[in-house]
Design brief:
By secondary structure, this protein is mainly alpha-helical. About 60% of the residues lie in helices and about 0% in strands. It contains 5 helices and no strands.
Length: about 70
């Protein structure tokens, strides 16, 4: 995400995300652990949407039959 932010322009992205330029640099440096809300602000400012969906696990047919009985 840091590389994309630099390519887009950190100053502009910081303004669009409502963050300070220096704090954006700090949050996106390798090894940094930015807060979740900071990541969301940057993602939105980049024009990206995120979606969550459940991870499908292998279904045990025997368990599935037990539930339907």
């Amino acid at each position: 995400m840091g590389d994309v932010a630099k390519a887009r322009g950190m100053a502009q992205l910081a303004r669009e995300a409502g963050l300070g330029r220096e704090s954006l640099y700090k949050a996106l440096t390798p090894g940094a652990k930015p807060r979740y809300d900071t990541v969301l602000k940057v993602i939105r400012a980049l024009g990206v949407e995120t979606h969550a969906s459940p991870i499908h696990q292998k279904c045990d047919p025997n368990k599935a039959l037990q539930r339907t009985r």
